[in-house]
Amino acid sequence: MTPALAEGDIVLVRSRAAPRPGDVVLVCWPARPAQLSVKRAAWPEEDGWYVLGDNGLDSTDSRHLGPARVLGVARWRLWPRPGRIPGVEW
């Protein structure tokens, strides 16, 4: 899948929105607490969410780091191409 976002994109994140499979989410990792990542929510797990990168061949995600803690859901890109971020239902 082509990544929904590119480096340098500015997005609006709703911090209290409940994630759904297919949403683009801001996450942190128990294994790397200082690292924030933007990934695609796949499914909920007991310890957080299983998340995947849109570029599966070049993404560090739950396949490597386990479930992530979702901090918010990104719904809109503000820059450079304003609009709704495409979602995919898993």
TrEMBL record:
SUPFAM superfamilies named in the record: LexA/Signal peptidase (SSF51306)
Gene3D superfamilies registered for this protein in UniProt: Umud Fragment, subunit A (2.10.109.10)
InterPro entries (UniProt xref): LexA/Signal_pep-like_sf (IPR036286)
Protein name: S26 family signal peptidase
Organism: Longimycelium tulufanense
Upper classification of the organism: Bacteria, Bacillati, Actinomycetota, Actinomycetes, Pseudonocardiales
